[in-house]
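Re: [help] complex structure
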Amino acid sequence: MKSVKNKQWRLGVPRALLYYYYGPWWEAFFQALGVETVVSPPTGREIMDRGVGLAVAEACLPVKVYYGHAAWLAPRVDVLFVPRLVSVEHKAFICPKLMGLPDMLRAAIKDCPPVLAPTVDLARRPDEGLQAAIRAIARALDVRVGEAAAAGETAGARYREWLARQREAGAWLGNGPPGGCPAGRSPSPGEGQAARGAVPLTVGVIGHSYLLYDRYLGLDIPNKIARLGGRVVLPENLAPEAGERACHQLPKRLYWTLGRKIMGTALYLMEQASIDGLIHLTAFGCGPDSLVGDLAERYAHRRSKPFLLLTLDEHTGEAGLNTRLEAFMDMLKRRRTA
Amino acid sequence: MSAIYLGIDVGSVSTNVVVLNQQCQLLTSVYLRTHGQPILAIQEGLRRVVATLGRDLEVAGVGTTGSGRGLAAVMTGADVVKNEITAHAVAASYAVPGVQTVLEIGGQDSKIIILRQGVVTDFAMNTVCAAGTGSFLDQQAARLGIPIEDFGRLALGAQNPVRIAGRCAVFAESDMIHKQQQGHPLNDIVAGLCEALVRNYLNNVGKGKEILPPVVFQGGVAANAGMRQAFSRALGTEVIVPEHFGVMGAFGAALLAREAGPKVSSFRGFELTEREFRTGGFECRGCTNHCEVVELKEGKEILARWGDRCGKWSNAVAV
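Output below.
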C-alpha cells in the first residue's frame, strides 16, 4: 500500500449496491476515526456507461453501475473501500456477485488503487464476525483496535437511528436514504395527490434498496408513482419483524438476506387491505430476484392483489416503463371505482 | 352539426384516427403508416377525417394514446392522454362486453390484458423481444416474396405446419430458411411460423396469465387469418376479432375522451393540419446525465419539451 500514513488516506466509497443499506454506518465509522472519505456522486449516465463498459457481461446492472462508481473514484482517492460482505446475519448470505466485488474490481479497473476489503461474515457467530471485520480495518488503517471498536459503536448507533427515521416516515416523502438526484426533483409531500381529491392509491414498491433509491439506475420509480397520484410505501418504512414474520408462511427459509427481506415485505404488504397494489422492481440478471420475483407474483395472484413486475437492464426504455406504470395506476383506480 | 370525439393512436408503425359520434358509433377511421414521421402522419390523418366528414364538425373531445401520445396531445390539444393498455382494454370492453382476455399485437409491441367484470386485473407487455409482432411478420412476408395480405390465407391452406423455433426472430428466420431448403411447401412454413409466434407470445407475454374466454384478438396482426387460427387452436377456444380490430387503440382513446366529458374541448382545430410543426433536439449539459431533450415547435413558438429527467426544460414551457 501507499507510503502515506494510513490514517491520512482518502478513502473512496462507491455510492452503489450495499452503500444504500450500510452507507450511514460506514461514513459514521470512518468519521469517528478521523479518516477522510469520498463518496462517489449519484449515478448518472457517465458513471453507468463506464460501468457497463468495464463489467463482465453477465453481471446484473447494479453490479455494473458499481464498477462505474469505483472507476470514477479510482484516480481521486488513495484507497477504495469495498467491504466483502459475505453475510450480515445468522445463517443467511449476501449474493456471491457482491462477495466477489473486491477481486472483480482489481481485475477490471486499470490503475486500480489498493482496495480495503475487510470480510464481513456474520453467518456463524454474528458478534465475533463484526469484531473481526473491525479488527481487520484497524490493522489496515494502523489504528488501535480499541479505537476502532469505539468507532464501531458510534456507527452502529448512528445506523440504528437512520433505520428508525426511515420507518417513522411511514410512507416515503422523497427524503429517503443516501443518494438523491443530481438535478434534485423530489416530490413535495402530497404532490399529485391533491389533484385527485380522493384518498390516494397506496402502492407498495419493493426491491433492492440500490434500485429503489438510486434515481438514475432505478428510473426514479417511487417518484414517478408519486407524480401519478400514488402514495408509496417502501420496504424501509416497515418494521423488519413484520416481513420476517410474514416469511414464516413460506415452505422453506430463504437464505439470501436481501431476497428474504424483499419477499417478507411483499408478503406483509399483500395482506394489508390499505395497500392497493404492489410493484416489484428487479434487475435483469439477478439470480435471487429471478426466484423471488416469480414467487412474490404467485402469492400476490392467490391473494388477488395487483402486482407489477418490472425488470431493469441497461437497455430498458423509459417510455415502455412509463406506459406500464400509467396502466398499472389506471388499473388500480378503475378497480376502486368499479 | 353534431358533436364528435377524436381518438388518435400514434404507434411505432401505424398512426390511427377514429371519429365517434355521441352514441359511440364509429363515423370514420383512418389507418396510416407512421413512417417515423408522427407529425406528418397526425396531420394527414386529420386531413382525411375532414375529407370524409367535411369541415362542419364540432369536436367535443380528443384522446391520444400510443407511444407518440405525448407529442400528439401537445399538437392537437388533447383532453385525455392515455397509455395504450388502458385504451385497448376500454375499446375491447366496449366492442365485446364481458371480455376476459385481450390479445393485442401491433407493429412493434404485443400485450395481453386480463379483465374480470369489465375491470383490468392484470396485464403484460413484451419486454426484450419483438418476435411475433407485425414488423417481424412484414419482414418475413417480404423475404418469402408474398404480400402480407396473402400471408394468412396461405397459412390456412397448410396440411402439416412445420415446427419453427419462435423463441427469437433471428433464429426463427434461420429455421424457416432451413425448412425451405428441405423442400417443405410454403403453406406449411407460413402456418408453422404463425404457430411458433403464438407459442412465443403465450410463453412470454402470456406467461402465468389466466386466459379465459371470451378472448378478443386485436391490433394490426389480427388481420392475419393464420394467426387467428393458431391462437384459437393453441387456446382451445374461439378467438373474437372485433370489427375495428386495427384501430382499437384510437377507438379506446376516443371513448375515454367521451367518458372524461370535458365541457369545452381544448382541441386546437383542424387548421393545425396546415401549420408547420418541427421537432428539434439537443443534449443538456446541465449535469452528468446528459439527457436528450426534444422540443416541439410550431413556427417559432416552442410548444413543449420532454426527455429531461429533472424537468428543467420541460417545466420551462408553459403548456
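The longest helix of chain A spans residues 145-168.
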